[in-house]
Amino acid sequence: MKIVDRMLGLSARAVIKQLIIFYIVGVLIHLVPFTRPYAIALTPFVLTGLGGWVFLYCLFPVNRTFIAWSAATYVVTYLLEAAGVATGAVFGSYVYGASLGFKVMGVPLVIGFNWLLIILGLSALISSKISNPFAAAVAAAAACVLFDFVMEPVAIALDYWTWAGVDIPLQNYAAWGIIAFAASLAYNLLKMKIDYRIPAAYVAVQFVFFLVLRLALLITDTAA
User: What is the mean pLDDT of residues 161-189?
Assistant: First the structure.
């Protein structure tokens, strides 16, 4: 508990500053060919470690409703991913690579956790600005789809996952929009109130991380 107390003793501003620094370093080591393999190998540990740190800030003080929503969101998104990998019926036909670490039913354990944090960060931020729960859920779902749209080419390049076809299916974006809407609506209807600053910052730094790497891919492809 002393370790947790020290971690939670940091101000939101200090945590956000550390997240920004960490992801700037992450971008740089992904851009350098020599260090990229090491950065990819560390990906599941980074997502678990930083994600767990962010989640702790949302978790305390302990709120049973928040814990139940988080557990349900993780389990549902994970099972849908497993169904998607097995059948291709949810998101389209795809398989996960080795970059995201240990897999169960063909799905990395960390992927459901990261999607939980993305949905949480966007839902908490948007619901603090939009009072109507349905409108807030629609906005959060749209933001999740935008996040996925920016991430997809980078994720493929880094062997997070691979689609069976040449193009990323529109079904993938539609599915994530529906899933994010349902989870966000549940968040809003349960009237959970958490400090959105740290989880929203976590989403923001990941978004910028993927955006920069996507632009780098675009430049590389154009030059080739």
Answer: 94
